[in-house]
Amino acid sequence: MKSILTRFSIRVLAPLLFGLPVLLIGLWLSMAWNRQSQQAVTRLADQGINEIHRHTSDKIADVLSMPARVSELNQHLILDRTLPPDNLASWRSTFVRESKSFDMLSAISWGSADGRAVWVSRYADGSTFWAIKDDPQGATMTEWKLDTSGDVIEDTRHEFDFQLASRPWFQIPRDARKASWSDPYVWVGGGASEDKTLGISYGIPIYRADRELVGVIDADFSLKDLSHYLSQLEVGKTGMALLVSDDGRLLAVSDDTPVISSQGSRMRSTDSLNPLVSAAGRYIKGMKISGDVNFRFQANGKTQFLHVSPVGKEVGLNWLLMTIVPEQDFVAEIESEFARSWLVSLLAVVMAVVLGLAAAHWLVEPLTQIVTSVRRIGQGDLQTRLDIQHAPEYSHMASEINKMAEGLQDRLRMQKSLSLAMEVQRNLLPSDSPQITGLDIAGHSTYCDETGGDYYDFLDVTGTDEDTAVLVVGDVMGHGVAAALLMATARGILRSRCAVPGSLADFLNHLNNMLVADTQGERFMTMLMVTLSAKKDALRWASAGHGAPIVYDPKTDTFPELDGGGLPLGLVEGEEYAEYWQPGISHGTVVVATTDGLEETMNEQGEQFGKERLQSLVRQHAAKPAEEISNLIRQAVVGYRGANNQEDDLTFVVAKVV
Q1: In the chain, what is the straight-line distance between the N-terminal and C-terminal CA atoms, in Å?
Q2: Which of 196, 356, 423, 518 reaches 20 to 30 Å from 636, CA-CA?
């Protein structure tokens, strides 16, 4: 070996002896940095996409809950004859007000069992129409355009053929005999518009006490708003998001990919003109997807990341949210930097005689720092910061890695803030049940997120007898921090009002007017207030869009049917609420007040827990203490839910006359 080396000039050996190690070390470090950087960036990208899916799922659930909530609201108004079925013309002001309050809805409709119908509809061009068919025997419907105040523009009157029984929004709930979603349908934008989009409706059949159908109340929603929302998401650099129904047809897409075929029918994802969408549709065709899953597949000659999540289960829909991101969005910059560092290593070999070890150190040291820092960040040390005064590429890379670490720290701080908010909110709920002679009371609340909108309380109202309890149960629209803030506001207003005597209706009137001033009708909550006495044989209650309490009389082994209530709180200023009462409250009577999260808990087959199952539990365990009844209800709900996630807050109060 020595003899071979001695044959070469030092001018040749120096570049070899200094340049080759520099080349090898530079390549080794570049490859190590490239591998670990790709792993770290891919992990962070997965976290980011998971976060996008979680927030998007919540947004879709909130948006899709609107048709159901508006239909339920109108159901209450019809049952208490605020909207009288025998005078459809009087409904216009209420429907117009609701249409303005819930501008994501495209139509609010009613169809009577005798063939009469009425609706307010809003089209893609922003125009609003009022239509009514008041003659059960007639074959036409009359429609007018409305001005911005909701008044009829007389010269826009026109008539068209209309048969209520042929309309899917009426047929489906009527035949199912329960609240139901329609299949998504193709809908034209109104007037002379050719702007086609997809819509979906939610209808509730309403029956008389003798189970005879009164009619169907319905709310329609345009899926074009979901496409607009998806288009605002940042999914990688060039990724896309789409919604697909359970039959594999497109519902909404983040770009201009058509969801409706040229023949005017809904398009399957596998038949999409977008090769990425069709390839993703074929890839998951036939799969049963019940939770978040990640795939990789080839399309357009590139590796694509596919993330799929089920959405809409909260409102009874089985849809899929899909995001498609090219692998290059994650690794292109890393590969570019790797190629650049390799060229720099080659240049270092050429200049090794002049630069020698200094050049090697100059090139390798920044990469070593970057690799070490990326590794530490990947291991969870988010305090790591890079301070590299070097070539612009390295400085830029260090700056981006620092920003990445700061972003992760912000997310952790946000998580801690949510945990603190959860602790503060839980402290707002009663820590102990009230000790009232002759009454046994227990309450419970479990939130599905860090913070929630459910609320229960035991009020100490001035002037109330010592043997009397004032119980409150409330449910704010939606979940999260906004719902928690509205819940805390309502609690503060109620407790401050306790210093002034008054009826339950007075409390709801006061709370509603205070909340409307804050929410401007954009958010609302339902509430039930109950007064129960150990000595008086009557139960009193008042409701704001909330279900009546469940009362079990062990002497007669019956559950009296209670009804009555008004609009949810925070929608309309000046709403007047009423107080109701139920006699026959004697020893052993059990009263249960709940939010809708209990009865609407779904099992793995998509069936709700329901009121009858709750009543059966109360009847079976009525002789036990309130706290034990509360625990048994909670255990029954958890067991019924099975492997499903808790999709809504679970809150209830059990009170017993002992």
Answers
A1: 102
A2: 423
- DSSP-assigned letter for residue 113: T
Fill in the amino acid letter for 369.
Q
Residue pair 85/112 in contact by the 8 Å Cβ criterion: yes
Check the CA dihedral 619-621-622-626 and report its sign: negative
SS3 letters for 605-618? Answer: CCCECCHHHHHHHH
Task: Give residue 191's pLDDT.
Answer: 39
Query: Taking the model in full, what pTM does it have?
Result: 0.45
* Residue 540 CB partners (closer than 8 Å, separation 6+): 504, 530, 531, 579, 580, 581, 582
Supply the pLDDT for residue 190: 42
Q: Whole-angstrom Cα distance, residue 69 to residue 74?
A: 9
Contact 347, 360 (CB under 8 A): no
CA distance 194 to 187: 10
Longest Cα–Cα distance in the chain: 115
Tell me which residue of 486, 458, 454 sits closest to 597, measured CA to CA.
Answer: 454
Spatial neighbors of 576 by CB under 8 A, at least 6 apart, are 505, 509, 566
Whole-number pLDDT of residue 627 = 94
Residue with tokens 């074009």: 224
Give Cα 45 distance to the centre of its chain: 22
Q: Please state the φ and ψ torsions of residue 190, each to the nearest 5 degrees.
A: 105, 150
For the chain, counts of helices (H) and of strands (E)? 15, 23
pLDDT of residue 10: 47
Instruction: Render pLDDT for 504-554 as a digit per residue (tens, 0 to 9).
Output: 999 999 999 999 988 887 889 999 999 999 888 889 999 999 989 999 999
CA 472 – CA 549 distance, rounded (Å):
11
Residues of the chain below pLDDT 50: 10-11, 189-193
Tokens of 348: 């270092």
Annotate 85-97 with DSSP letters as a single string: TT-GGGGHHHHHH
Handedness of CA 591, 593, 594, 599 (dihedral sign): positive
Q: What is the pLDDT of residue 656?
A: 94
CA distance 239 to 255: 10
The pair of structure tokens assigned to 144 is 């007018």
